[in-house]
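Internal ticket #5521
Category: modeling
Description: The requester needs a full-assembly model to guide mutagenesis choices. All entity lines are attached below as received. Residue total reported by intake: 408.
Assigned to: D.W.
Attached entities:
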Amino acid sequence: MRVVVKEDNASLARIEEKCINCGVCQKTCLENNNIGDNCINCGQCILTCPTGALVPKYVYQKVLNYINDTDYTVVVLTSPAVRVAIGDEFGFEAGAFLEGKMVGALKKLGFDYVFDTTFGADLTVMEEASELVSRLAKKQTLFTSCCPAWVSFMALKHPEDLDYLSTSKSPIAMLGAMVKTYFADFNNLNKEKIITVALAPCVAKKYEMKFNDDVDFVITTRELAMMMRECGIDFPNCIDQEFDKLLGTGSGAGLIFGSSGGVMEATLRTAYYMLNKEKAPDKFYELAEVRGQADFKETIVDMKGQKLKVAVLNKVANVEKYYSQLKNYDFVEVMSCPTGCVGGGGQPLVASSQAALYQAKRQQSLYASDKENKLKESYANKDLQVAYSTYINKNKVNLHREKEKIPR
Ligand code: SF4
Ligand code: SF4
Ligand code: SF4
């Protein structure tokens, strides 16, 4: 038995000549998702296929064509989990934090602007924390929705409960919307001539973006490595560079989105501030109970007078076991891939026996960077405050997804 990969699957493909019918992909799918023959585009089977028969749907050649076409401004948006995994392709230590080198390499590849999806994550936090606060008042549970594989799982298994999902756009979709509006207007550019490319650890985003007009392409960490090799870029010797201004500064909270438990921790920091008009206590900056690689994590958070029950599920295969209890929590995070996006289906291949260790190192690297970052709260991001006050509110930029545009 092997997984079904349909021709029109937006995330992955099978190279038939390479398939030896070993059934490893089916086992992986069962362990991670347990959704029968339905594909939720997580890409985990790509990581364990022993012959390389399963591959992400590659689009990086199209991106290179746009880079070479001077009519277009090509903008890349980089997800948190890429910078702690790209080094695996070039012999760096597992979890090496290579943000500056990654930006330098993207500039060398010819991208016109390099922005940070952590800025988009900060926007997701702001909108999602507002939703959390308003649901708390109504005693309604909020489920995160930034993982498209989890959203697809919900649409398949619990379509009657879709309203539990946050309506806030995912970080990539947020940033795509900002590039095609705020950035385009700021630079007086025709948005039809802007190409947005999300660089992500994720193949499910290739599917999610079929429902979003603001992101033109999604390339994976492995595709970035392929682009560099094809273009003769010597990654280990690339000079560190900084993100471009306007949409290039994200908080530590935005950065930990790449780890299971990170969306929860990031959102709670801002929800606390929204509820109490003061910075959250130190505990919110190292919420150990929701960190790590356990399948199910839970805790009670004191929001100063209000106790919040929160739960974090790591891998959707674990959802059904706990589903009947989830509505007893105030806030629930689910990420489909093991350890969250650091373990995404577009990340570099490592031996299966080493996968959990690599994911843990990437996760620790993100938390270490959050710890070092002076900016740890999304609401305190100055660039984001300027964007809200000068543009988002005035121009009514849509930061929420339309109900009918839920991936399914
Ligand atoms: S794991 Fe790869 S080689 Fe094995 S059955 Fe699946 S696609 Fe074929
Ligand atoms: S992409 Fe994920 S859901 Fe789809 S077949 Fe592979 S493991 Fe299963
Ligand atoms: S956990 Fe992250 S990488 Fe995996 S499918 Fe969800 S969004 Fe993509």
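Resolution: model delivered.
Comment from assignee: The pocket of iron/sulfur cluster (ligand 2) is lined by residues 3, 12, 28-29, 32-33, 39-45 (CB under 6 Å).
Ticket closed.
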